[in-house]
Amino acid sequence: xxxxxxxxxxxxxxxxxxxxxxxxxxxxxxxxxxxxxxxxxxxxxxxxxxxxxxxxxxxxxxxxxxxxxxxxxxxxxxxxxxxxxxxxxxxxxxxxxxxxxxxxxxxxxxxxxxxxxxxxxxxxxxxxxxxxxxxxxxxxxxxxxxxxxxxxxxxxxxxxxxxxxxxxxxxxxxxxxxxxxxxxxxxxxxxxxxxxxxxxxxxxxxxxxxxxxxxxxxxxxxxxxxxxxxx
Length: 231
Ligand SMILES: O=C1O[C@H](COP(=O)(O)O)[C@@H](O)[C@H](O)[C@H]1O
Hints:
The protein has about 230 residues and is of the alpha/beta class. It is about 25% helix and about 20% strand. The chain has a domain at about 1-105 and about 175-205: Rossmann fold (3-Layer(aba) Sandwich).
């Protein structure tokens, strides 16, 4: 099924959030088994169930680099840390983890991560798979509606005025996310239905998730987020 007026964007609809997590985990597992080497993990609460499912799979993590789309400027043991939450459920000990150094602060942290990406990142800085979450306001990674960071170049950026706490964060830029060979937007729950409808309607800088490269984007969403009862 495709979004209205957009033949390329793919929508995978699941009955509920559990099924969405299973579909996301299967998609990542297939990518890893298929040779994907550089993956971007989404932060936030939505993908945690998928990461826990991945942890229970026997996957060839050796040689796989795990990057992040964004991080909050807190230590990894802080409850707001994306890496803290992800690494609490997904071990993938054989993978090479690249947590964003949020504790360095927004500017030094963004610079350090860009340097790490240039050194250890994928050829052409094009990730094999980029997982994205979305907030109810349509933000993805730490790219917020109408925020000036939506329009910056480079690989990474620091934000000091995030409308969602905590205010200081690190994020990949839209250009870095969109350099991915395949992008996934993982969305569950009725609270995100309005923002998801805007994503499906077309690009709009009031809804940063709608600016993800639509020709390579799979929207993986449950029936509640897609605004209706399951069929
Ligand atoms: O702050 C953030 O929010 C989004 C959405 O999070 P969720 O808890 O609603 O799933 C997330 O994708 C981003 O990584 C995170 O830092």
